[in-house]
Amino acid sequence: HTEGDRALETPYLQIENVHKRFGSFVALRDIYLDVYPGEFVCLLGPSGCGKTTLLRIIAGLEQQTSGRVIQAGRDVSSLPPAKRDFGIVFQSYALFPNLTAAQNIAYGLQNAKMPKAQIDARVAELLETVGLAGFGAKYPAQLSGGQQQRVALARALALSPGLLLLDEPLSALDAQVRVRLRTEIAQLQKRLGITTIMVTHDQAEALAMADRAVVMDKGYIAQVGTPHSIYQRPTTPFVANFIGVMNFLRGVVASSGQVRCGNLLLDAPRNEFDMNTPVQIAIRPENVKILPQQDAFDSSLPNVIAAELEEVEFLGSGYRIGMRLEGDAKDLITSELPADAAELLDLQVGAALVAQLPPDCIQVFAQEPVRA
Ligand code: ATP
Fold it and tell me: Which residues form the ABC transporter domain (predicted)?
């Protein structure tokens, strides 16, 4: 689906002009969001941006100050959690420690007065679904963190809710388990086709799992889009920097396709600013090329800059290097090099390098207003 196709569909969940204040503190403002059937949406942003508050408002665990939440065409804005239709998984597994995995999963089914034989069949099916067939008799303390989180997921899915809410479900797990479980959750979500909203502060997790990501900052939505579009076409420097890493160079617009940064005149297409506007050009480290010395003076290449190596960091799959650009700009920019490219270079601190900033990979933003 492109975002255009979706406009013709009826959203499963609509958040309309939600605001939330805690006393005089504004935690959320002007929140509009449509989530489509079967979509996996990640709420993403730095600590304190309001993502957990928004998820809790969707669940009815927190009451918005104003605005509406519409789920499956029904205004649920003032319903308590029990009257809404969702399953939720929290960061802390929140399992009953005195109940087995099977009993934890069965809990909501018993409350819903499902007959015993049906409960047993459903629990077995759910254990299978989350890859824990045969673990039903274990107590939470006998399970690993990843296994406990699978039980929590099975419990959230038990009553076949219309909406799955995930509140940083992976952040308490160690790195390897986290990466495996995120793939499994994303596959399971697609298999079940359940509309899902996940809160995370981990941008890699959001890029890997989400159909669309909602990037939040200080209580408002900074950008909504597919992971690809947010990564490739961030609309603000905040989003550019929060999603992945970005180099910024300050300058002024010198002509429609050029920006002057100190004594460097750089080609920067896709730039709609007026002459002399203070701007910043942005380029991702993986797009900053390092040229062999002999190509340094090939005048047909745009944006070739001499630089001095200042920092080298081994990443395993390659290197991240920090270079000081020559000339009066003297900015530090970073580049990521695959191991094979790095082998051809002298990576001693102080070495002379030739960097290239391919114009296609450059984005131009207005400079943030400078406050006195
Ligand atoms: P984190 O990743 O750190 O959990 P978050 O983006 O989920 O951050 P929220 O938990 O939604 O952020 O909180 C948003 C802001 O609202 C924070 O500044 C927080 O201190 C404030 N806040 C949240 N809950 C309350 C509350 N019950 N009373 C007062 N302030 C609150």
Answer: 13-243
At 287-319, the pLDDT tens digits run 999 987 776 767 688 999 989 999 999 988 899
Residue 316 DSSP SS3? coil
Q: Which atom of ligand 1 is nearest to the CA of 201?
A: 2
List the chain domain ranges: 3-241, 246-366
pTM greater than 0.80 (yes/no):
yes
Alpha helices in 158-197 (DSSP H): 175-192
Question: What are residue 66's DSSP bridge partners?
Answer: 19
Hey, whose CA ends up nearest to atom 2 of ligand 1?
Answer: 47
Collapsed DSSP state (helix, strand, coil) of residue 352: strand
Pocket lining: 284 vs ligand 1, CB cutoff 6 Å: no
- Output the average pLDDT for the chain: 91
Q: How confident is the model at residue 272 (pLDDT cuts 50, 70, 90)?
A: confident
What per-residue confidence (pLDDT) applies to 371?
45
ipTM: 0.95
CA atoms within 13 A on the CB side of 307: 33
Distance from residue 32's CA to the centre of ligand 1 (Å): 19
Tell which CATH classification among 3.30.379.10, 3.40.50.80, 3.90.950.20, 3.40.50.300 matches the domain 3-241: 3.40.50.300
Calpha distance 81→56 (Å, rounded): 9
Q: Which atom of ligand 1 is nearest to the CA of 23?
A: 29
> What would the CATH number be for the domain defined by 246-366?
2.40.50.100
